[in-house]
Amino acid sequence: MRRDWYRRLGEAGWSTPTWPPQYGGRGLGRDEGGAVVEELRRRGVDRPEEDFVGVWLAGPTILQWGTDEQRETYLRPLACGEHRWCQLFSEPGAGSDLASLATSAVRIDGDRWLVNGQKIWSSFANTADFGLLMARTDPSLPKHAGITYFLLDMRTPGVEVRPLRQMTGDAEFNEVFLTDVVVPDSARLGPLNAGWQVGISTLMQERNSLTGPPVVGPGVADQLIAEAVDSGAWDNADVRDRLQRMLVDERALQSASFRASVTPERNPGAIDSIRKLVSADLHERTGRIRVDLAPHLTLGWPSDAEMPSGTRSFLEMKKFCIAGGTSEIQRNIIAERVLGLPREPDPDRDKPFNRRSV
C-alpha cells in the first residue's frame, strides 16, 4: 500500500518536484520545491528510507552529469520508486580518504569495462537495483585524477552483496564484492577520469540531505521538552539548560537549511559541512538526553519485536557523526574553506596512484 502510494506520488511529479517534467518532476524552483518537501514531511509522508540514495543522491547527480539517454533511462523510474539505488564509494582501505580507492575498471573490447574490487558500508545494497560506483581507470594519474564514475546494474554477474549486522539488529549496511564485473561504457557517468568531480557532487548532495529539509514548527527538541515537562524532569535546572540549548541549535539549523534551499551560496560545500556538523551533534545529544530523561526506555534489545525509541536513539546516536563524511572531515573542510587554514598534509596527493608511498 505504502509503496503504491509513493509510485502514484512520483507519477504525478510530487516526489521530485524540482526535476524537469520530462524526467518525473514538476519543474518547480528551489523555494517552491522546498515548500513541497517540507509540507510532505510535516504530514508524515516522507519517502521510505530505502529510497534515500536514489532520490537525494543518484537523481541529482544524473541530472547534472548524465546524457539525455541516461536521464531518460533512469530518472522517471527512480522518481516513482520503481528502482532502488545504493552508493558504492567507501572501501576497506579508502574511507575518509576516498580518493585512495583501489577498485579497478579496465577497458576491454573498446566499449566495456572489467571491474574488480570491494566496497563497504553501502546502505541498502542488498535490495538495490542499481549502484553509484567510483572505480580507478588510470592508476598512472594522481589519485584524484584517475577515477571514473559508473551506474552499475546490481544484477550483473560478479556482484556479491553481504549484509553487515549492526548493534541495533538491523542490516542497513553491506559489503559488496565485484569480481570480473562487465560494465558497458554507456553506463559511464561523466567524462573519463573525471569521476572525482562527479563523486564530489554526489557527496555534497548527501551532506545536504543528511541535515534534513527545512521544517517550520515543532521538532525533536520540542518533543523532548514536552516529555520533560510531563515527567517532571523540567524542574531540574540542568535539564532545562540542555534542552533550551538544543532547541536554539535546532532552530538555527532549520533557518540555515531554509536559507540554503532558497539562496545559492558562494561556498556551498563549506556551508553543507557546517550544517552536517551541527546536525550530527544534535543527533548525538538527542540520544544522550533520551537516556537521561527516561532510562527505562533504553532497556530494549535488538531482538525485541519493537525496539523502544530510546534504545534505538541511543544506539544510533553516533551514526550521523560518521555517515556522509565524518565530523572530523567536516571540521577540516570548514577550517580550509571558511577559516583559510592550511590544507592537511598529503604527500601522495600529486603522485601517480601506482607510485604512492602507502
UniProtKB/TrEMBL annotation:
Alphabetically, the GO molecular function entries are:
flavin adenine dinucleotide binding; oxidoreductase activity, acting on the CH-CH group of donors
Pfam families documented for this protein: Acyl-CoA_dh_1, Acyl-CoA_dh_M, Acyl-CoA_dh_N
A single cellular component GO annotation: plasma membrane
Q: Which InterPro entries match?
A: Acyl-CoA_Oxase/DH_mid-dom (IPR006091), Acyl-CoA_Oxase/DH_mid-dom_sf (IPR046373), AcylCo_DH-like_C (IPR036250), AcylCo_DH/oxidase_C (IPR009075), AcylCoA_DH/ox_N (IPR013786), AcylCoA_DH/ox_N_sf (IPR037069), AcylCoA_DH/oxidase_NM_dom_sf (IPR009100), Mycobact_Acyl-CoA_DH (IPR052161)
Cofactor entry: FAD
Swiss-Prot/TrEMBL keywords: FAD, Flavoprotein, Oxidoreductase
Q: Which family does it belong to?
A: Belongs to the acyl-CoA dehydrogenase family.
Name of this protein: Acyl-CoA dehydrogenase
Species this chain originates from: Mycobacterium conspicuum
